[in-house]
Each structure stands twice: as structure tokens, then as C-alpha cells.
Amino acid sequence: STNNNNHPLYRDAENTNKFYYTGYFNAGGFKVLEQLGDNTWHPQWGVTNGVVHASNPDSSNEPGTFVIPAAGFYTFELDILAKTYSITAYTGAQKTYPVMGIIGNSTAGGWDAQTALVHSSFDVHQWSLKDVTLTVGEFKFRANDAWDDSWGNSTPISGVGLYGGPNIPVTEAGVYDIFFNDLDGRY
């Protein structure tokens, strides 16, 4: 299935053609799907002979896979306009949190009650919550229902949450799918 608990890539806040993912990978190959659901396999992004490219919507010109040499934590960067990528071993801290949530005046609980996120069963550093109603306002990511560990930034929609950073603005009310990576702060 094209939506089998796949993890999203995190879009750069300024360059909408650049994507990141820091987390656990099994050894082997993978490709990047442009959209999830309805078994839409194309276009998909991969690499053949060192060159990044996408398949055509009719599935022709299918690329090869990006390769992970051994199971472990890596940072994957992909620029679909420049057609470049990198895969590097992640050596940063890996503090784990039993609880992660969002809190703020754009959330249902306001600044008084944290809305819990769900961590991935594949990688405990990846958190998500689907179909969340947010109002115009702001929020932060916060661990363990306390302010000891929180992340935020001034960029709406996507960015890198800074540890103890400012509130994340919500400039348009709506229903959102929220994703957060506690390894690098990307949302």
C-alpha cells in the first residue's frame, strides 16, 4: 500500500523543493512517493547512476532506489529541483519521551491542556496526529505535559522547531495532519 504508515519527509520552510528526514531506517533500498493513498505509486522519486529523478505518472522511467547501507539512524536530504540527495549517519542525542503533544491557543485545549501526539511504532522519535482542528493563533510542541522540553519557531506550516523556541503561528484555521520529529525538531 502507498499509505502503510509511511513517514513523511519534512519540507524546508523556505525552499519548497527541499525535504528532510532524520530517523531510523532498515538496511536496503527505498523510494520517495509524491502522494499517499489510493495506491498512487507514481510519480516516485529515486536515484539511478547517482542522478535523482522521478518516474512519469504513467510509471515509465522508474528510478532506482536510495540505499541505506546498514540499519540505524540517518539523515536523508532530497532536493527535487536540484535533483540532489544525501544520506548521512545521525550521531546526535536520542532522548526518548513517553508523551509528546501540542499546546496553544490554536488547539482545542488552549494553553491549559496538551493534545497528545502518537509516536510511530517504527521510530519513537516520529510523532503525528491526523485530522486536528486548529484555529488561527499559535502552538508549541511539548514533551511530558510539562515545559521542561518544548519546541517552536516562527515559521507556519513547516520548519525546524527550536528547543525552547517561539510559538508556531497558525495563520489559517482548518483541519491539519501534524507531524513532528523530536530528533531534529522538524515539523
3D structure, described in words:
The strands form five sheets. Strands 10, 11, 14, 15, 16 and 17 form a six-stranded antiparallel sheet that branches. The chain is mainly β and about 190 residues long. Helices cover about 0% and strands about 45% of the residues.
Defining key terms:
single chain; 187 residues; mainly beta; 6-stranded antiparallel beta sheet; 4-stranded antiparallel beta sheet; 0% helix; 43% strand
Write the layout of secondary structure elements.
Elements: E1 10-11, E2 18-25, E3 28-30, E4 32-33, E5 44-48, E6 51-54, E7 66-68, E8 72-79, E9 84-89, E10 100-103, E11 115-116, E12 118-119, E13 126-134, E14 137-143, E15 150-152, E16 162-163, E17 168-170, E18 174-181
Q: Please state the average pLDDT score.
A: 91
Q: Could you state the order of secondary-structure elements as H and E?
A: EEEEEEEEEEEEEEEEEE
Distance linking N and C termini: 24 Å
Helix content bin:
under 10%
Largest sheet: 6 strands, antiparallel
Radius of gyration: 17 Å
Identify low-pLDDT runs.
Answer: none
Report the total helices.
0
What structural class results from the helix and strand content? mainly beta
Strand content: 35-45%
Overall 3D form: globular
The count of β-strands is 18
In short:
The protein is mainly β. The protein contains no helices and 18 strands.
